[in-house]
Specification:
37% strand, 49 residues, alpha+beta, 1 helix
Length: 49
């Protein structure tokens, strides 16, 4: 989990960053030495019994 202040989240969204909860990174995608994307998968939720 990465923490952020409300203004940091708003700034990131204004810059086009898409936020997703409960995902795990699987692959980092780059082009010309720059990160251009991250391939993720949904993280399973624990079952409370």
């Amino acid at each position: 989990m990465m923490e952020a202040n409300a203004h940091e989240i708003i700034d990131a969204e204004n810059e086009g960053v898409r936020m997703h909860c409960l995902v795990s990174p699987m692959k980092f995608i780059g082009e010309n030495g720059m990160l251009t994307g991250i391939q993720c998968r949904m993280s399973p939720l624990p079952i409370n019994r």
